[in-house]
């Protein structure tokens, strides 16, 4: 079993493109270990016993690698004080470690990262300046199975090119207004298996290219009638919630009738006589016999967000 990677370990192989060192007992890798490997594509260091980010150094050092895999180690934190530079790295996998935070500037040395995977950690904090103080070109952020309590909107404001966001199996309780306002390219959002019990009316504002929204297996009983502030069809997954099937669900019922996307059952939790039945298989009269929502009655709401006053037209109950 290999226990450490010494300096200049690969100096005789300057054309090396793939290094496979997974499933050893490596605790330390010297920063000079990959010196001279300017064509390195993948460095595979998963299933070792690193307790901190590899390649410790007292000075900023540059590493050239496109994919860095550190899955299933014992990494506790990122190196914020003296971050190494990975100018060519596009994919970073930190899955299955013991990270409790993605601290500000922790990944400042990854200016061209496209995919960050850090599921199955203990992350409860995600810093706004994780990648520094400027907008970053990250496209996929995968953080499922952590302890995140709210959608990290401050970080998301600096990720305008994001297309994929997975926050499933966390402890998020609310999708707040303007949560994704700066993420117009975001196509896939997975919020399954959280603790979500409310969705704010303007939560989806700005999602011009949304293709899939997953909020299954949460604690939702209704969605606000103004929730669909998106001007196009998209896949919506809602199963495993506590839906109250009454007239407040009429707009959602009609929305599912029009969508071209496949949909799973939306099972009623209340009232008792409808418990366990799929809302989408019911007749409108089965769950809405009195009261109604008029599409003609409109009101204007003013929302203050980030010191900017915004007006949106919302449907109101007649």
From TrEMBL:
Gene Ontology CC annotations of this record: plasma membrane
Lineage of the organism: Eukaryota, Metazoa, Echinodermata, Eleutherozoa, Echinozoa
GO molecular function, one term: carboxypeptidase activity
Keyword Repeat: yes
Record's keyword terms, sorted: Carboxypeptidase, Hydrolase, Leucine-rich repeat, Protease, Repeat, Signal
A Pfam family matched in the record: LRR_8
PANTHER family in alphabetical order: ANTIGEN BSP, PUTATIVE-RELATED, CHAOPTIN-RELATED
Organism: Stichopus japonicus
This protein's name: Putative carboxypeptidase N subunit 2-like
Keyword Acetylation included in the entry's annotation: no
């Amino acid at each position: 079993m290999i226990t450490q990677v010494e300096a200049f370990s690969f100096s005789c192989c300057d054309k090396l493109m793939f290094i496979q060192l997974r499933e050893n007992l490596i605790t330390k890798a010297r920063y000079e270990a990959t010196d001279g490997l300017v064509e390195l594509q993948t460095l595979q260091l998963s299933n070792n016993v690193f307790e901190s980010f590899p390649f410790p150094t007292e000075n900023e050092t540059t590493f050239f690698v496109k994919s860095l895999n550190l899955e299933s180690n014992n990494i506790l934190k990122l190196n914020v004080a003296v971050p190494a530079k990975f100018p060519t790295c596009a994919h970073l996998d930190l899955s299955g470690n013991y990270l409790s935070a993605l601290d500000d500037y922790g990944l400042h040395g990854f200016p061209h990262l496209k995919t960050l995977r850090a599921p199955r950690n203990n992350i409860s904090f995600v810093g706004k300046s994780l990648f520094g103080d400027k907008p970053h070109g990250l496209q996929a952020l995968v953080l499922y199975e952590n302890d995140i309590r709210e959608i990290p909107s401050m970080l998301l404001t600096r990720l305008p090119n994001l297309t994929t966001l997975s926050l499933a199996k966390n402890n998020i309780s609310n999708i707040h207004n303007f949560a994704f306002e700066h993420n117009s390219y975001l196509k896939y959002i997975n919020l399954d298996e959280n603790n979500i019990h409310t969705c704010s009316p303007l939560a989806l504002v700005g999602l011009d290219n949304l293709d899939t929204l997953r909020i299954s297996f949460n604690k939702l009983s209704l969605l606000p009638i103004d929730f669909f502030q998106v001007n196009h069809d998209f896949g919506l997954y809602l199963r495993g919630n506590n839906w109250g099937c009454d007239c407040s669900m009429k707009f959602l019922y009609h929305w599912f009738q029009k969508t071209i996307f496949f949909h799973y059952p939306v099972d009623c939790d209340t009232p008792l006589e409808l418990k366990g039945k799929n809302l989408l298989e019911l007749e409108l009269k089965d769950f809405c016999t009195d009261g109604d929502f008029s599409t003609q009655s409109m009101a204007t709401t003013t929302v203050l967000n980030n010191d900017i006053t915004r007006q949106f037209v919302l449907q109101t109950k007649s």
